[in-house]
């Protein structure tokens, strides 16, 4: 009798405990077998409209849920492969690109995919003119001419006309960006809301932007079912997908900010994949039985830049000396272990023309000598704007220590991302540590920002990294532009190699490492891989035991 | 009973405890001795005093005591070593710096914060409180409403706002904490002042023609001092915690200075695997706060006028 009562009572207790758990936080006890649950810090998502989104986390969502004409080849990143396109050709004057679509393709809604949809996707991206629009407008597309320059010739033929004879590899690489994702015109326009045209926005429709901010109109292996800011993103398999069907029915990205909480959830089985592990947690996950880690280099490089408006930092010897004051090896072995590899050139490994030269290492004596030559025998003092996140604060502190050995007094000014970035963009910093992620998988993205400064005045429209550090380099700017128009890939690569060597030798950029994205996952998850870019972190190949 | 009263040599103790002091000096020393006797009878208070004295000594001799450089670490070879590895008694942090050396040098910052806040806030509160209490009327109303405004905000939130406006840094943190900690002292000093302003000796001083300024400074303030000292000592722990809180949020001391709160913040990332990085400065803060609290408790027991003479 007593036992009976105790049992009932404990059952009641357990029920109450469970109920309270559910009430406090909708925790999944163990992830369901047909669902992949990822812990992911996706606080950067502001919209899942491919014409508007330009954030790293959104790139992954768009990459998995939308299709483009062409895609980056994840196995050989200097190439592109066809996705919606069956074939493409470029005219002899290198101005007109013609794409033939694969026949019989359907959107998730069941509507057929036609060249009309492709043209519409370009049109709305250009006309909406959100952050990623520059990728398309750099080809000379404007709101006024986009319907002429990007148009459907017949239901399966799309042509794009660009304003200059760019290298075809450049144009195709840009078209792999998520802004060129093809949306379902019929569905989107049925949800479009009328707007009153103004001087800034001349159109009487929002092209479905309001709907697509949280909605979905694509044709990828998964559909976006829901996105709740800082809560979850839910994807569901698209039954109308034209390629190999995804193995899992659902993918849930659960918002988890802290590395430690992701690690704990992964160890308990609440999530299958932890996406934002810091080096320490990474290491313990890799040692734990039943868990695995994977990594992939990404197109983001971290650097310390020296503002050339500061007369001290503008001396070439000082620029060079600072490159000898970073303890690359120790940083690589400790602070960024697993999340980055030491890299000193501005093109990330994997992009066309990238070279792996690493001529610099910590050499205090050499730096002292160079500083003495520049007239700073007794050292100098500079301020250093540092964003309050790891690993940059750790690197900044390490640099502060090594620089002190050469008599360079570094005063760290910490701030949040917005504060430091605002100061950096206004060219008011001395030293700044930051990162540059390629906007699209083409060497021009990084080359342009590191070497091109078309107008060094304070109110210049061009805001490249070279401009932000007041590095006035007309020759390099010209060279970068010439690479853009070089049709021969080998010759184009050679120009980028030359640019990288020049930047390595003389620039105000102390490039430290290339980001490696890491993830820890349960060994129940099969075929989990990270891609070379954020929009190639595919989940549709993943299955579970 | 071998010696008579008159011939007995007066011991120092008896001289101090004499109930008929022959000079002002003897009276004052006698009173101080009584306080010390009451204080030293309290073991915990002595322990607190010991902790604080140790802190002061460590801060003075930091350069001699610290086995390593507090800001120069060995990133490559000595990162995140557990306590007791080689000569790193308390282990090393994520920059390969010796935690013990950083704690030792950090004691200077802690003492500086506590000392400066006490020097700024206590006299300010005392002045506002005694003036308000003695003057009464609209002066009292205005001063006390200002005090109310400051009291209306949680201390840490107000300090955060000040630091955010002034810019991060240890000096600004000290200023912010001082600005936020004077109101309780003002309230207390006012209450004490109201208690004595109508007493006979004040009336006597006034009859002798003393100016209000002189009365407040020489005859009211001293009456508030003992409770003020107790209150400030008890608040020290809170001040240390606030300073550490600001440091933890990145608004106090800036890297690479070894401020304890900032050390905890940077060690937080390693709490699962390298517990000592955040724990050691935490223990230091705990010990020093405990020391100040015990000392303050002992002082209250010793100084409280209601307890005196019993």
TrEMBL record, chain A:
Belongs to the bacterial solute-binding protein 5 family. One of its GO terms (molecular function) is peptide transmembrane transporter activity. This is ABC transporter substrate-binding protein. The keyword Nucleotide-binding does not apply. InterPro entries: Peptide/Ni-bd (IPR030678), SBP_5 (IPR039424), SBP_5_dom (IPR000914). It is found in: Periplasm. Keywords: Signal. CDD domains: PBP2_NikA_DppA_OppA_like_7 (cd08512). Residues 1-29 form the signal peptide. PANTHER family: PERIPLASMIC BINDING COMPONENT OF ABC TRANSPORTER. Residues 79-457 form the Solute-binding protein family domain. GO terms for cellular component: ATP-binding cassette (ABC) transporter complex; outer membrane-bounded periplasmic space. GO terms for biological process: peptide transport.
TrEMBL record, chain B:
Belongs to the binding-protein-dependent transport system permease family. One of its GO terms (cellular component) is plasma membrane. One of its GO terms (biological process) is peptide transport. It comes from Xaviernesmea oryzae. Its main location: membrane. This is D-ala-D-ala transporter subunit. Residues 107-296 form the ABC transmembrane type-1 domain. The chain crosses the membrane at residues 44-66, 109-136, 156-180, 228-254, 274-296. It is found in: Cell membrane. The lineage of its organism: Bacteria, Pseudomonadati, Pseudomonadota, Alphaproteobacteria, Hyphomicrobiales. It comes from the Bacteria. Keywords: Cell membrane, Membrane, Peptide transport, Protein transport, Transmembrane, Transmembrane helix, Transport. The keyword Manganese does not apply. Gene3D superfamilies: MetI-like. It is a multi-pass membrane protein. InterPro entries: BP-dependent_transpt_permease (IPR050366), MetI-like (IPR000515), MetI-like_sf (IPR035906), OppC_N (IPR025966).
